[in-house]
Design goal:
Blueprint lengths: L11 E3 L5 E3 L8 E5 L6 H12 L1 H6 L3 E6 L3 H11 L4 E4 L4 H6 L12 E5 L5 E6 L6 H13 L1
Parallel strand pairs: 3-4, 4-5
Antiparallel strand pairs: 1-2, 3-6, 6-7
Length: 149
């Protein structure tokens, strides 16, 4: 798994509306990528809702937030609508971006849960991996953003 000090891999992923989000276009401001296993599962819903509940703090820190899973745009749109998610969900259908970040699988088969905080220069400043602590990802990401100032 990539860690603090590593460069953010170049990527382009579609959001729920099919609009591409490209890593190079995000340069100039910090952003958070949280990789999660699947829309509408209990842990993933808890994590997404925790990011939703603290979204204003991320915006106040100058950061954008993106959730990433292999679900398609229609699934993401339903998930975001059902839970009032204010950030964009990105579809990594083949898992290439998950692999580029080195997000480990849980028990060798379940897509892992990891969060990366990337600074305005495209450098990872914090990486956190904890499959069974979904809400901790929000705490970790906010702390890293505040520390990076």
């Amino acid at each position: 798994m990539l860690h603090a000090g590593d460069a953010c891999p170049d990527f382009s992923l579609p959001d729920a509306a099919g609009m591409p989000v490209e890593a190079r276009a995000l340069r100039g401001r910090p952003f958070v990528l949280f990789f999660y296993p699947k829309d509408d599962t209990p842990g993933c819903t808890a994590e997404a809702c925790a990011f939703r509940d603290e979204y204003r703090a991320f915006v106040d820190a100058g950061a954008e937030v993106f959730g990433v899973s292999s679900d398609d745009g229609a699934s993401h749109a339903r998930f975001a609508g059902r839970h009032g998610l204010p950030f964009r969900l990105l579809s990594d259908a083949g898992g290439a971006v998950r692999r580029a970040f080195g997000v480990p699988a849980t028990l060798g088969v379940l897509p892992g849960r990891a969060t990366f905080v990337i600074d305005a220069n495209g450098t990872i400043v914090h990486a956190f991996n904890a499959q069974f602590l979904p809400k901790a990802h929000v705490v970790e990401a906010l702390a890293a953003l505040r520390a990076a100032g």
